[in-house]
């Protein structure tokens, strides 16, 4: 036994000496890139918001063949930010595909439900075309199972409550087609909820808006309060008995954009046990970019007020852009938003909601979906633990989904679907 012990000591000494002479031999365990790969092998990286369905709608009228998703779409002009090869490179485990449809003016239009169904159909067709790589997920356990099989769990998120056309019946049927969250508004307010980027009309949620939230809780559909006004955020947090999400928003205290989340709301989000999925959208990430965009919008309005031909207006706008080039945000600034939320309420309430293909060129270092690991490397280098990274990548969102599903079972056992009408609730 003594000889054996001596042999073990000599072996350990030789290994230690080799690592000192050739440090790269011992680097694997502490290499942040390798650590990220290991974390994301065990925990699915889940992104809360990607707009590739609407990009296909704009470019191909929703046809798949003209833009093969399993090819290099970065080579297009202009390039996409998403394709299957880059999703794999980015180690994505789950994606909420946004089934966005525009809202042109308050309060939406007849036919919006049909349009969003067309977008939902696109997601199902996309997944069906690549069954070896993608699979539709409906539950938190689906995401874990699909990720473990080596495929990307594909989920559906409705962007904008105008899609339901003021009908709880439409809301329920959209859930049946696979939608697992709904962003209550987009850029314009509705009869029952105010948007952050429009005139306030109901001071948050109307009575029917509260009923929408209750019915989403009963079904097991996550309530997404990105895009809504601060008053609506608070109203939702007053009403919802299940955790809520921000699918793609960042911290207002870091970048004072109306689409971001105020600190008082973040504190209530922690009490609610929800999750803020930090976005990469340039003007939500950087105050410098936000101010440049605001100045650009003011310049455009001034130019549009002039009695000029379209070509002349465009020349003036081009000249303004040359004189005031848009700054570019960075990966580090996205990490600053994550730092802020972590320092304010803790790491248990943070997720990722990139907004790829729904935004201009992404931050430097986060240009497309292949770059997610770089963000987690940055966080590790800032002192985040492997457990922290796993929570931000997907565990927090999975917890929220599981709790939403559990609450739905309780509510379904306690009562029937609501048959309330907007005209009887909101006069």
List the helices and strands and how they pair.
Blueprint lengths: L1 H20 L10 H11 L2 E6 L1 H9 L23 H6 L2 E9 L11 H18 L4 E3 L3 H9 L3 E8 L8 H9 L2 E5 L23 H13 L2 E3 L5 H10 L5 E2 L16 H10 L2 E4 L3 H4 L1 H18 L5 H14 L7 H15 L4 E3 L19 H10 L4 H29 L7 H4 L2
Parallel strand pairs: 1-2, 2-4, 3-4, 4-5, 5-6, 7-8, 8-9
- CATH architectural name of the largest domain: Alpha-Beta Barrel
Number of strands: 9
Total number of distinct structural domains: 2
Can you tell me the residue ranges where pLDDT is under 50 for at least 5 consecutive residues? 1-27
What is the CATH first-level class name of the largest domain? Alpha Beta
Sum up the overall morphology in one term. Answer: globular
Strand-residue fraction?
5-15%
The H-level CATH homologous superfamily of the largest domain, spelled out, is Metal-dependent hydrolases
The radius of gyration over CA amounts to 24 Å
Helix-and-strand structural type? alpha/beta
Alpha plus pi helix count: 17
Largest sheet: 6 strands, parallel
Summarize the amount of helix as a percent range. 40-55%
Order of helices and strands: HHEHHEHEHEHEHEHEHEHHHHEHHH
| CATH topology tier name of the largest domain | TIM Barrel
Whole-Å distance between the termini? 88 Å
């Amino acid at each position: 036994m003594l000889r054996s012990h001596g042999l073990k000591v000599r072996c350990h000494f030789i290994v230690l000496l080799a690592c000192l002479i050739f440090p790269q031999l011992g680097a694997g365990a502490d290499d942040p890139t390798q650590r990220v790969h290991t974390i994301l092998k065990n925990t699915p990286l889940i992104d809360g918001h990607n707009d590739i369905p609407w990009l296909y709608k704009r470019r191909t009228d929703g046809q798949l063949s003209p833009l093969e998703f399993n090819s290099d779409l970065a080579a297009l002009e202009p390039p996409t930010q998403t394709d299957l090869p880059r999703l794999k490179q980015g180690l994505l485990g789950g994606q909420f595909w946004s089934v966005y449809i525009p809202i042109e003016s308050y309060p939406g239009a007849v036919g919006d439900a049909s349009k969003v169904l067309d977008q939902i159909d696109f997601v199902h067709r996309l997944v069906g075309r690549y069954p070896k790589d993608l699979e539709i997920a409906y539950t938190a356990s689906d995401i874990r199972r699909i990720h473990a099989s080596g495929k990307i769990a594909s989920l559906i998120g409705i962007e904008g409550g105008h899609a339901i056309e003021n009908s709880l019946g439409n809301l329920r049927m959209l859930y049946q087609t696979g939608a697992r969250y709904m962003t209550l508004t987009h850029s314009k307010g509705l009869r029952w909820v105010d948007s952050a980027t429009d005139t306030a009309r109901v001071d948050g949620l109307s009575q029917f808006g509260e009923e929408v939230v209750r019915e989403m809780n009963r079904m097991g559909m996550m309530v997404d309060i990105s895009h809504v006004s601060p008053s609506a955020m608070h109203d939702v947090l007053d009403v919802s008995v299940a955790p809520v999400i921000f699918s793609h928003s960042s911290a207002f205290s870091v970048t004072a954009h109306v689409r971001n989340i105020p600190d008082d709301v973040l504190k209530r989000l922690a009490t609610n046990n929800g999750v803020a999925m930090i976005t990469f959208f340039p003007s939500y990430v950087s105050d410098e970019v936000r101010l440049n965009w605001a100045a650009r919008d003011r310049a455009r309005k001034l130019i549009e007020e002039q009695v000029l031909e379209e070509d002349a207006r465009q020349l003036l706008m081009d000249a303004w852009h040359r004189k005031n080039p848009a700054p570019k945000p960075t990966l580090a600034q996205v990490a600053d938003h994550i730092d802020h939320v972590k320092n304010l309420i803790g790491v248990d309430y943070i997720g990722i909601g990139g907004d790829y293909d729904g935004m201009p060129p992404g931050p430097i270092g986060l240009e497309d979906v292949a770059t997610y690991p770089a963000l987690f490397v940055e966080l590790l280098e800032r002192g985040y633990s492997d457990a922290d990274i796993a929570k931000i990548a997907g565990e927090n969102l999975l917890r929220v989904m599981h709790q939403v599903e559990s609450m739905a079972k309780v509510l379904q056992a306690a009562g029937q679907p609501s048959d309330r009408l907007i005209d009887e609730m909101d006069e």
